[in-house]
Design goal:
about 200 residues; mainly alpha; binds flavin-adenine dinucleotide; FAD/NAD(P)-binding domain; single chain; two-stranded antiparallel sheet
Length: about 200
């Protein structure tokens, strides 16, 4: 990534890293999202409020589970942050004269890197629908019919890919999804090459 002052010079660039970790939704996750005062931040805890014992656990898990070089990256990070990752889908994107676009409608797991493309595709589709229909309501219905299918497909795709990448497979369906991507070629094909959405 570009560094200070948007510099891309060697020595001034930065990098970021993401470590995906599975957690139990009913007890572990609320524990991680609870600050020192006992408040639970269900949709994501502000980085400065992550408890010291949670940060210490991240460091010890890194030392235990990761290669030393990766563990060092984790332990040298002054202020790690984390956020829960959920799938979000909606059955429709139009409600009379109101429409949902982008992340407001569908949120896929990050592995497939489709969030921006999906949001832009929604924007293009809604402009096209508004230009092609006499009433706003009819335009938004047509837009919704078209883009719900795309949103569903992207979320479903990311779920399959996510099953391959998560360390713990919870059930037979997870295992079946993971099998589909069990080669480096499949992962590269699905994450590194653009898809026509
Ligand atoms: C850390 C991270 C990394 C990501 N990496 C990638 C990636 O590599 N590739 C990729 O394709 N996608 C990536 N995404 C996902 C991508 O950023 C989103 O899918 C995309 O930005 C969704 O676009 P959007 O227009 O729907 O929403 P947003 O980009 O979130 O835009 C919503 C806007 O609404 C504004 N807003 C919110 N509330 C109000 C209000 N009440 N009044 C007025 N304005 C308001 C917000 O400030 C924001 O500007 C990443 C997301 C995150 C968080």
């Amino acid at each position: 990534m570009a560094g200070e002052g948007n510099s891309t010079e060697a020595g001034q660039r930065r990098y970021n890293f993401v470590w995906y970790r599975a957690t139990r939704e009913h007890d572990e996750l609320p524990h991680l999202l609870t600050d020192a005062t006992g408040k639970v931040w269900a949709n994501g805890i502000p980085p400065g409020l992550i408890r010291p014992d949670v940060l210490a656990d991240i460091e010890s898990a890194a030392a235990e589970l990761l290669a030393p070089q990766f563990a060092e990256i984790v332990t040298r990070t002054a202020q790690p942050l984390f956020q829960p990752i959920f799938d979000l889908t909606v059955p429709r994107m139009a409600f009379g004269r109101i429409a949902l676009l982008g992340d407001a409608a569908f949120v896929a797991r990050p592995h497939c890197g489709m969030g921006v493309t999906k949001a832009a595709g929604d924007a293009v589709a809604i402009v096209r629908a508004l230009a092609g229909h006499a009433s706003v309501e009819a335009a938004l219905e047509a837009y919704s019919d078209e883009r719900v299918q795309v949103g569903q497909a992207i979320v479903e795709h990311a779920r399959h890919l996510g099953a391959y990448m998560q360390a713990q497979l919870r059930n037979d369906q997870d295992r079946e999804m993971a099998e589909r991507y069990r080669t480096p070629e499949a992962v590269m094909r699905e994450t590194a090459v653009s898809r026509p959405f």
